[in-house]
Design a protein that fits this description.
This protein is α/β, with parallel strands linked by helices. It is 25% helix and 16% strand. The longest helix has 15 residues, at 61-75.
């Protein structure tokens, strides 16, 4: 997610933070690869882990992320369980299977992909054999940068966790998953994408249809 005056420089389908990190665009139409559907998870139950120590410099990170996960749970059938924190020496963008890692940069911390004007990065790791999501991550810029960009922690957390569960950038402004984000709640396109990901992850035939 970028600040209001800084357009995203990376293609909306890829994040430059290691091999295999990909997310798919959801805005009433999917990117054509693969199969014009979102990459499903292997199951609807996903473990969420926060990075140890981030509460010290961003005390509202965990509460905000849990609020967003509850929103996603209400929109879809994805289920989240919070597990023990992962260590600060462990890479954020290397989650275990069926795991999402959430972190927030400390003041002065250098993070690959968090360039000037970037408020966060996120995405899913795809399993090489079946194209399903094997894990996801959300990395936020430090709170001072987010505030200086006239954004909010809630808006950035929504956007990056959206990437972590498999949503890509939406073209319509005003949607959470637009590249510049939004302070508004999940829009119709955002909600449809979350519902589709959940249905495909359930192993059932998807019944969602886009207008």
């Amino acid at each position: 997610m970028t600040g209001p005056e800084t357009p995203a420089t990376a293609p909306p389908s890829t994040w430059p933070i290691g091999w295999g990190t990909t997310s798919y665009g959801i805005d009433y139409a999917f990117l054509p690869f693969p199969r014009r559907v979102p990459a499903p998870w292997k199951a609807e139950a996903i473990t969420v882990r926060f990075r140890a120590g981030d509460q010290d410099h961003t005390p509202d990170l965990r509460e905000t992320a849990l609020f967003v996960l509850d929103e996603i749970r209400a929109i879809s059938t994805l289920r989240f369980t919070v597990a023990t924190d992962f260590g600060r020496d462990e890479p954020v963008a290397a989650p275990a299977p069926q795991e999402i890692r959430v972190a927030c940069a400390a003041p002065g911390e250098r993070v690959d992909g968090l360039g000037r004007g970037t408020l966060g990065i996120g995405g899913v790791q795809l399993a090489s054999r079946d194209g399903r999501a094997s894990g996801g991550f959300a990395m936020l810029a430090d709170p001072a940068r987010i505030a200086a960009a006239d954004s909010t922690m809630l808006a950035v957390v929504r956007h990056e966790i959206g990437h972590a569960v498999g949503l890509g950038h939406a073209k319509r402004r005003g949607l959470v998953m637009n590249s510049v984000g939004s302070d508004e709640p999940w829009g119709v396109g955002d909600r449809m994408g979350l519902a589709l990901i959940a249905e495909y992850s359930s192993g059932q035939e998807c019944t969602c249809r886009m207008e």
